Amino acid sequence: MTESVKTPANLRANVRPTDGYVLSVDGKWKQRYETSKEAEAAGKKLKEKFPVVQITIYDAAEGTYGAISSVPTPAI
What we know:
Elements: E1 9-10, E2 21-25, E3 28-33, H1 36-49, E4 55-59, E5 64-67
Antiparallel strand pairs: 1-3, 2-3, 2-4, 4-5
């Protein structure tokens, strides 16, 4: 049995999103999510892999951005 996994929707570059939550990487919209928790989880996962890039979540309904908190780097 395979379970259907819903993948995030890809965005068009010339259309402003009107609903949902959009993951923004270095100022460019990348993927749309239905809930802020999904977008935040994806953002944190990316931030762990690439701590230097700026990752924010765009709330399309409100028209506002929220930052992903930086992930602490392990001590060497």
